[in-house]
Design brief:
Layout (H helix, E strand, L loop, with lengths): L5 H31 L4 H4 L13 H10 L17 H33 L1 H4 L2 H21 L7 H9 L5 H20 L2 H17 L6
């Protein structure tokens, strides 16, 4: 039975709504931040939207659902429209993860309030798993994207902070970044790095420091 068991299929199905939100809102936040800073490229291409079909990459979504590692279609950004390109690229790059962390915080606070005021709602397995998936998937996507390896968002923030003498190293990483990420994922290095950060953020989002 294994991966084709009823429990596994149910877990996959319950993961999909949170994944669709996390991916779509992440890319929307990139586009919205760029729009506010003067770049309307995403809006012109129909990417300033919460419709998942505007953002999903079929292979990346499949990988996320079944292997918990994947990607969406990057929102197009044209830094020529920015008044302060170095600062604005960093803001746009951080906006996606910020949207995920805001979603996780909302899910965590709602979960904590329901646990106190209406625990019977959380007795519903599907609803409870949806809320927990919203919490964990958004935190995971936000933390993962802040890793400073191209093409992840964290690398774009790093690139505008690097001195010119280190840009050659960055461009080298940009060429081979995806291969480096795959190696780190399949050797479990990224998971080991992310685990304590995610645990801390879960505690923050669930307001555990108040109880």
């Amino acid at each position: 039975m294994g991966m084709f068991s009823g429990a596994y299929i149910a877990e996959i199905l319950l993961r999909i709504p949170a994944l669709l939100w996390a991916l779509s809102f992440h890319e929307f936040c990139h586009g919205w931040a760029a729009y506010k800073l003067g770049d309307r490229t995403a809006a012109y291409q129909g990417r300033l939207s919460l419709n998942p079909m505007r953002h999903l990459d079929p292979v990346g979504t499949f990988m996320l659902i079944f292997f918990r590692f994947g990607w969406a279609k990057p929102v197009p950004i044209n830094s020529r429209y920015f008044k302060n390109p170095r600062r604005d690229i960093a803001i746009v790059s951080l906006a996606g993860a910020a949207g995920n962390f805001a979603s996780a915080l909302a899910a965590g606070v709602i979960y904590r309030l329901l646990a106190a005021a209406a625990p019977w709602l959380l007795d519903n397995f599907a609803f409870r798993m949806f809320m927990l998936n919203m919490l964990f998937i958004n935190i995971g996507l936000g933390v993962f994207n802040l890793i400073p390896i191209p093409p992840l968002d964290g690398s774009k923030v790093l690139s505008v902070m690097l001195p010119p003498s280190m840009l050659d190293t960055y461009f080298f990483l940009e060429r081979y970044g995806m291969f480096i990420i795959l190696i780190l994922v399949f050797t479990n290095v990224i998971q080991i790095f992310m685990r304590p950060i995610m645990a801390l953020l879960v505690d923050v989002c669930l307001l555990n420091f108040l109880f």
